[in-house]
């Protein structure tokens, strides 16, 4: 009994030390990547994580070093050392938010003009709900399409996760398979999240736009959750029409890039690796593949 209590005390002290180091590391990171910056820990490369962890270790958080003095690469929220992953050419894989086998090439030949004509009452309700949401978005963001895309993706990544979660629970309750829909919806949510990780690299959201993300996501998550419980068909129709609006927004984004209103900067490294784009790709290439992704989600929903 005494040994058990002693072991528990040691475990608590160890956990406390790790928590303290994590808090100090977050503080050091916030100094390097300020609130108004565009980089967040979820989109950092492993090399940048090492640098951040190294700075926190130098400040007193020594959990990132082994007894032999060499740094350990900790690439998860749980402090577990990640496996070493390499690219096909043998170079180290630098992303912790996705792995090489999760990358793909977008289908740019997909029909962008396809439209599901609303016929039933639920179709019309979903269609006009989405149309009514477009007006305040146009007024607020106007032609700041980078920040508009950031806001769009923080919302677009919610439905797949909510739908996948509810289907998962339904499958458990009924002791039956989901027909593959759980994975499809979760993959959709992950893809939308990677859109956000990409546009975080090119946009400079203002403080009130960041605050708006909290508000809109909180309201939309709960509203969509209740809508999915009431009618999954209505919920998916809403997503389908949202994706049609997303295609329109990214088309306007491309027009601004072509006119030179928005600078066609080099594509972020995370986008090049995720979509397997050529090394010399630009922001326009990124918007093209993102728009193709949205078209695919439109057809699924």
Textual characterization of the structure:
The chain is mainly α. It has a domain at 120-300: Ferritin. Helices cover 63% and strands 0% of the residues. The protein contains 9 helices and no strands.
What order do the helices and strands come in, and which of them pair?
Layout: H1 2-32, H2 46-58, H3 121-141, H4 145-174, H5 181-199, H6 207-230, H7 232-259, H8 269-274, H9 283-300
Helix pairs in contact: 1-2, 3-7, 4-5, 4-6, 4-7, 6-7, 7-9
CATH superfamily of the domain at 120-300: Alternative oxidase
Number of helices: 9
Mean pLDDT, all residues: 77
Q: What percent of residues adopt helix (DSSP H or I)?
A: 55-70%
Number-wise, the strands total 0
In short:
By secondary structure, the chain is an all-alpha fold. It is 63% helix and 0% strand.
Features:
Ferritin, 0% strand, globular
């Amino acid at each position: 009994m005494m040994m058990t209590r002693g072991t528990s005390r040691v475990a608590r002290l160890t956990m406390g030390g790790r928590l303290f180091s994590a808090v100090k590391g977050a503080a050091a990171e916030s100094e390097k990547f300020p609130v108004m910056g565009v980089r967040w820990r979820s989109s950092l490369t492993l090399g940048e994580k090492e640098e951040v962890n190294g700075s926190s270790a130098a400040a007193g958080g020594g959990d990132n070093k082994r007894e032999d003095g060499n740094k350990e690469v900790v690439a998860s929220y749980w402090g577990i050392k990640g496996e070493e992953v390499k690219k096909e050419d043998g170079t180290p894989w630098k992303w912790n938010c996705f792995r090489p086998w999760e990358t793909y090439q977008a289908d740019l030949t997909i029909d962008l003009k396809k439209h599901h004509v609303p016929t039933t009452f639920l179709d019309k309700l979903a269609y006009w709900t989405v149309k009514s949401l477009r007006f305040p978005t146009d007024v607020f963001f106007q032609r700041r399409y980078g920040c508009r895309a950031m806001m769009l993706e923080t919302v677009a990544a919610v439905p797949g996760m909510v739908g996948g979660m509810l289907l998962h629970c339904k499958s458990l309750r009924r002791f039956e398979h989901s027909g593959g829909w759980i994975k499809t919806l979760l993959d959709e949510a992950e893809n939308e999240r990677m859109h956000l990780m990409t546009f975080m690299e090119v946009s400079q959201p203002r403080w009130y736009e960041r605050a708006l993300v909290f508000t809109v996501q909180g309201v939309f998550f709960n509203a969509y959750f209740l809508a999915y419980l009431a009618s999954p068909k209505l919920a998916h129709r809403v997503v389908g029409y949202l994706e049609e609006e997303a295609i329109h927004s990214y088309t306007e984004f491309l027009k601004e890039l072509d006119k030179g209103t928005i600078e066609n900067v080099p594509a972020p490294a995370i986008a090049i690796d995720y979509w397997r784009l050529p090394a010399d790709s630009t922001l326009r290439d990124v918007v093209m593949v993102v728009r193709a992704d949205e078209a695919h989600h439109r057809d699924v929903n």
